[in-house]
Amino acid sequence: MKKNAIIFALTSICIGSSWASDASLKQQLEKIGARNIQISDSVLPGFRTAVSEQGVIQISTDGHYIIQGKIFELTNGKLTDVSNSVLMPELNALSDEMIIYPAKKQKHVVTIFMDITCPYCQMLHKRIKEYNDLGITVRYLAFPRGGLESQTARQMESIWTDKDKVFALNEAENGHLPKQLSTPNIVKKHYDLGLKFGITGTPNIVTENGELIAGYIEPKDLLTMLDE
Question: Within a 13 Å sphere around the CA of 72, how many CA atoms are in the beta-carbon half?
């Protein structure tokens, strides 16, 4: 009985110190302006991953060092960008709010942060069938470049809350912008997530492992990148 009690006490101490450590790291980050911080495991030894409204960083367990930027995993001579992999559960949780153009013979799924007034997004959207025919399913999230107070944000909210979101987006991309303006509640979630990914413009393409590809990419070139 005494032995079990000692083991339980030691376990409680270990768990408690781990929590205290994460709490201390949060306090350190709050001092430099980070908000709504979540701490989790890091792929880097001796570090923890911190996700906040300001993005993703790695912070050393002693709280003295911060790394911000890309992290690549090297496996069998292949580099994989895992910098934003921690954000993928949050991104996939928005799947019901995405505007999706599915490929019949799906090979890859990409999520694209887009703006209905962005000329490169319009260029990409005009070729959506080519992406689909190559086996690439496209999922759209809203990222109004002018911010949440812009008219575009309110127009995009109307599109993303329409009963037929695909039709509404197609109409907007053909120049028939919605007349109804709505408070960007759904769009805000998409926009805030985009900021965590470090997005500042559109289009930005997120692969299934969280790698970010900025800018317009030709359909065949995107397939090559995803296959590699």
Answer: 7
Catalytic residue selected from 48, 139, 145, 154: 145
First CA to last CA distance, the chain: 57
3-state secondary structure of 95: helix
Q: Is residue 192 within 8 Å of residue 53, measured between CB atoms?
A: yes
CA 41 from chain centre, in angstroms, equals 18
Taking a C-beta distance cutoff of 8 angstroms, is the pair 87, 193 a contact? yes
Catalytic residue list contains 145: yes
Q: Is 14 a catalytic residue?
A: no
Q: How many CB atoms lie within 10 A of CB 224?
A: 12
**CA–CA separation, 183 and 148 (whole Å):** 9
The answer to whether 64 touches 206, Cβ cutoff 8 Å, is: no
- Token pair for residue 8? 């339980």
| pTM of the predicted protein model | 0.83
User: Among this protein's residues, is 115 annotated catalytic?
Assistant: yes
Tens of pLDDT, residues 156-190? 999 999 999 999 999 999 999 998 899 999 999 99
Tokens at residue 115, please? 């703006």
